[in-house]
Design goal:
286 residues, alpha/beta, eight-stranded mixed beta barrel, 12 helices, 9 strands, 46% helix, 20% strand, globular, binds ligand C2E, binds magnesium ion, cyclic-guanylate-specific phosphodiesterase activity, cyclic-guanylate-specific phosphodiesterase, transmembrane helix, membrane
Length: 286
């Protein structure tokens, strides 16, 4: 396992240096500079209710437009920020943008919109986490027509008292919790019984295993039986084809997200797209 994560880390760092031809220390400076110059922004990817084919949620995704390097993928800079103590500032930055956008989302998107935000497990264990969340909640529009969901990867489900109390506390604040990228982490399934979570996001890898010719995908089917027994609502990510969507719908997946419907969009484009999509003026781009 240590070897594997070492290999993965060096692959990521290799990719990182491909994107930023600077030395190690200046990447840290670049992120800080980028935040000061507002080079980071947020896009929202629609989430569709599989039963009525309407947009009922969005996932906020951070973007970085670097002045000389162009778009830097979040997988790269988030990972770097996590390992260099910058993820808290970056998340605070994102929460500030989302809180501003929330006013427009609350009035221009369907009522009760689920607004999902990715929270790093590293942030969860810091001193500032609860203050950051309180500050975010207090800056949301009132009355609040939004349902906030925090997406946390499996490695955030570490079996400790602190994480458990953080989860209980989040739910007391009215925030729902989703396990992100389910099936790619440690998958110590015991946490599913110990932590109270609301949604499980099935990783894109499982969705990719569904194709037109395959009638069964045993691992995915097992995961879906499990979530059914645990009464967990599921979200499938990375839905790219109509046949994948159909399979997931027939197997009880409540929410669908992927390029079949839409990529992540800027705020105005999202509102426009949602208006048309929910009136069936546009359908999935098949
Ligand atoms: P994630 O949370 O699993 O987000 C979903 C990723 O899958 C997004 O990539 C999205 O654009 C991509 N995706 C969605 N539908 C499809 C599809 O149909 N096909 C394919 N091939 N991809 C699809 P993105 O935006 O590049 O983000 C990658 C990861 O970076 C996210 O994975 C998340 O772990 C992290 N990330 C992004 N923004 C934030 C953030 O604000 N905070 C934190 N902590 N992490 C973030
Ligand atoms: Mg996510
Ligand atoms: Mg995900
Ligand atoms: Mg993912």
């Amino acid at each position: 396992y240590t070897l594997l994560s070492g290999v993965l880390l060096s692959m990521l760092l290799g990719a990182l240096f491909h994107y930023i031809h600077l030395n190690y220390h200046s990447i840290e400076r670049e992120i800080i500079r980028g935040m000061r110059h507002n080079e980071f922004f947020v896009e929202y990817q629609p989430v569709i209710d599989s039963q009525n084919n309407k947009i009922i949620g969005v996932e906020a995704l951070l973007r970085w437009q670097h002045p000389t390097e162009g778009r830097i993928p979040p997988d790269i800079f988030i990972n770097y920020a996590e390992s260099h103590g910058l993820i808290v500032s970056l998340t605070q930055y994102l929460l500030r943008i989302v809180a501003i956008d929330a006013h427009s989302l609350a009035y221009n998107m369907p009522k009760g919109l689920k607004l999902s935000i990715n929270i790093s497990p590293y942030h969860l264990t810091t001193q500032s986490f609860r203050d950051d969340v309180r500050h975010f909640i207090s800056s949301l529009p009132q009355p609040n027509f939004l349902n906030i969901v925090f997406e946390i990867t499996e490695r955030g489900m570490i079996d400790n008292e602190q994480a458990m109390s953080d989860f209980m506390w989040l739910r007391q604040q009215g925030i729902e919790v989703a396990i992100d990228d389910f099936g790619t982490g440690y998958s110590a399934l015991i946490y599913l019984e110990k932590f109270t979570v609301d949604y499980l996001k099935i990783d894109r890898g499982f969705v990719m295993s569904i194709d037109q010719n395959t009638l069964t995908t045993p691992v995915l089917d097992t995961v879906l039986r499990l979530t059914d027994q645990l009464k967990l609502k599921t979200v499938a990510e990375g839905v790219e084809t109509a046949s994948q969507a159909e399979y997931l719908r027939q197997h009880g997946v409540a929410f669908l997200q992927g390029f079949l419907y839409s990529r992540a969009l800027g705020l105005d484009a999202l509102i426009d797209f949602t208006y048309k999509f929910n009136r069936q003026i546009v359908s999935a781009n098949v």
